[in-house]
Specification:
28% of the residues lie in helices and 35% in strands. It is of the alpha+beta class and 85 residues long. It has one domain (3-84). A four-stranded antiparallel sheet has the order 1-2-4-3, covered by helices on one side. The longest helix has 14 residues, at 35-48.
């Protein structure tokens, strides 16, 4: 099993809510909806990557189910937490 897939699996089983977790190369991206959850992810990733920079920015992404038109898609608001290993 690849190291990235193993890391992604372990992050998904931490018990912290998320919309998506992606591990690619030496980067971890976590999308979540609430600010408290984003703070928790930021602290957790900070402990995992050992003091490297962990950034949290407000973000928007397309919802899984579009209830609008193709020109005005349904969007989700939340936070993107990014860390470099």
């Amino acid at each position: 099993m690849k190291v990235q897939a193993l890391m992604q699996s372990k992050l998904q089983h931490l018990g912290i809510p998320y919309d998506s977790v992606k591990v690619f190369g030496s980067t971890i991206h976590v999308r979540c909806f609430g600010r408290d959850t984003a703070d928790t992810w930021q602290q957790t990733l900070g402990k995992i990557v050992g003091g490297m920079k962990v950034k949290m920015v407000p973000s928007m992404w397309e919802a899984a189910q579009n209830k609008g038109t193709c020109l005005v898609p349904t969007m989700c608001k939340g936070f993107l937490i990014s860390a470099q290993i």
